[in-house]
């Protein structure tokens, strides 16, 4: 195999789609392929060619993503696939290495991705930065506590999703910087979110409800609902929640109440942030059946630019020895000096206080991964007693990170 790497031209899109379908073993309906194409930045794609044959692909989306302290540019790595005939011959490694050097030369200081399998990206310096809580809530036991916020001025309006897009866009943009991991959705991204062709309706048609008062919208929920009845003719429908965003706690509670109260629905399923206030709204938190899954992986492509780009929960002054075989420009000692409103990170000749693989910094970057736990797992060391805890506390953040939508 003689491998060459270059961006994939838009005219080569049919080859890209066939590769994607082969790698993932699925069939992409034509309108989904078109949405995928419109969400692709071809200039930021990278194809691996064996002669003329496209055998591997990846791309970067230019995201604006919230991190602790506010939104920053993040390289959203996506569309990773290798033709089955060429797997396990180093194609992905070649693509990842080139992508990092391209990003280092003129792109974002951090990269993020959603992984199809959790074992793939750690070797390239990605750390598991955000978890999704996959929940299944039987509606029968989903009673709220008496302290659930309420506002008599609020009312619900059932809308057709296509008619309320401007409401969704405004609410989502307004809450974007409240949670690390949330990212701005482009018009093409919203087109994909709201697509509701026959082949999108495996979990039922897309439905939506808006919470509003006389001043205007304060939140919305977007979901799919599928009616069914069990063998005793008891309603057993599922409501699959997609988005639930609100400007304030009362609207948030009302929207959750609504999705839990829909007629003929026996259970609601969703992937939520690990600290979803719903956990505290439920009188019986055990009503919520949950399991964890990795949601976002983060990679510091340029440590010196990435660490000052976020804010810190407490002042910290620590020399970090970074281990990074894939991006050697990161390897070495860096002094991170941060207050709660500014931060600096510079190369340092001082002895290291803590030693970390770059993946540990990626895992902690969004504030949801305590470094002490990584130390207990053998992923971090300290030479100055207490230094790791200082860094861990400074990097921690509330609320928990979560992106809410695969890019
Ligand atoms: C995952 C995928 C991109 C890997 O591509 P690849 O070209 O086979 O990967 P490489 O040959 O460069 O592998 C590099 C290393 O990662 C390991 N690796 C790669 N994919 C792996 C997987 N799915 N599980 C375990 N290890 C994996 C390889 O064994 C190799 O390890 P080594 O360096 O110790 O030998 C490819 O198998 C694929 O397209 N899978 C289906 C689609 C998919 O899941 N894409 C990822 C979307 S996030």
UniProtKB/TrEMBL annotation:
Positions annotated as active site in the UniProt record: 121 (proton donor), 407 (proton acceptor)
InterPro entries in the cross-refs: Acetyltransf_17 (IPR041380), Acetyltransferase_Eis (IPR051554), Acyl_CoA_acyltransferase (IPR016181), Eis_dom (IPR025559), GNAT_dom (IPR000182), NAcTrfase_Eis (IPR022902), SCP2_sterol-bd_dom_sf (IPR036527)
Domain N-acetyltransferase: 3-149
Binding residues annotated for acetyl-CoA, in chain numbering: 80-82, 88-93, 116-117
Pfam families: Acetyltransf_17, Acetyltransf_9, SCP2_2
Superkingdom in the source lineage: Bacteria
Signal peptide, first to last residue: none
SUPFAM superfamilies assigned to the protein according to its UniProt record, in alphabetical order: Acyl-CoA N-acyltransferases (Nat), SCP-like
Keywords: Acyltransferase, Transferase
HAMAP family attached to this UniProt entry: Eis
UniProt similarity note: Belongs to the acetyltransferase Eis family.
Record note on quaternary structure: Homohexamer; trimer of dimers.
Name of the molecule in the record: GNAT family N-acetyltransferase
Organism: Streptosporangium longisporum
